[in-house]
## 1
Amino acid sequence: MNPSVQEQELVDLLEAIEVTEVKDLVVFNDDVNTFEHVIETLIRVCKHTLEQAEQCTLLIHHKGKCTVRTGSYEELNPMREAICEVGIDAKIL
């Protein structure tokens, strides 16, 4: 095989592979928001099941924080903004 063809195939392959750094969307505990509000927000924004949202909310309450979603920054940032808009503290770490 021609070396330039092999090089081009390698370049094409590398361009086809999307390398993304996996981030965590973390929600933090506070003394303001109710369990119901946090649960409803996680279901609406993060597409959690009721059980997932309840478990995350308990972890937030008892541990002070919980990773509620993982993914790329581009995927998580709209979720972080939506969570913060309703008064819940969230960060991408």
Note: The domain at 21-92 is CATH 3.30.1390.10 (Ribosomal Protein L30; Chain: A,).
## 2
Amino acid sequence: MHQQSLVTAEWMAAHLDDPNVVLIDVAGLGQDQLQAYKAGHVPGATPWKWKEMLWDERRRDFPDPQEFARRLGQAGISNDTKVVFYGEGMQFGVYAWWTFRYCGHRNVAVLDGGRKRWRAEGRPLVTDEPGPRAPVACKPAARDESMRVLRDDVLAALERGGNVMLDGRSPEEYSGARVGGPGGPDVGAVRAGRIPGARHLHYTELLDADQRFKPEAELRQLVEARGAAPDNNVIAYCRMSHRATVLYFVLTQLLGYSKARVYDGSWTEWGNLVGVPIEK
């Protein structure tokens, strides 16, 4: 599982010319002009704007199977193509990985450490954008609903108990001091706070200084300190679910948890819902 879902800079360097591997640089919030990509990216990486490529155009949801397959085929990605993501910020690369897996494309991985680790290892960054890949056939695949939880399911989980809720936001968001993360606009919901009973695990705690994932023993200690055991039902959320997918990746791909899910509505939905409880 680890070898399939997380690749090193060394592995990526050895596969830059592999026609069966597609490397994608995901531009996140504040990157509408592809600033980081244009300043320097891993050779061969194609830029994607996260919302344009990963969301439905009219619904707060993901593309349906037919549309998702159409987008992949137009991007030169077949059902068998290995897709590797990294992002600016890093959580957007993991979010793209999660979205692909949820939408049925299993052959997908995250570049550990992304651009930052690539540069730290002395590898070159480039500014030229590769030409488009030729369109290919891609068949629709079924979504993996076991990866996702919706708001009614979260409410039911609160009433039922026995779940571990992990909040991947900043301390300021978790405490209710802010709705948005530090350094950005304090917007996104009409209420600040957290889902009742949620334990705090800021996603940055799972990463080292080069934005690589920490060793397995350290990750396990961090997760277990929040009361999450491998046989628990775990629900991860944040503000818009990008950071929550980092928790999900660690739990499922690096630690072997089988019952973790992402509440992708996260605080932008929960903090605006009428009649649902919050804590501060």
Note: The two ends are 37 Å apart (CA to CA).
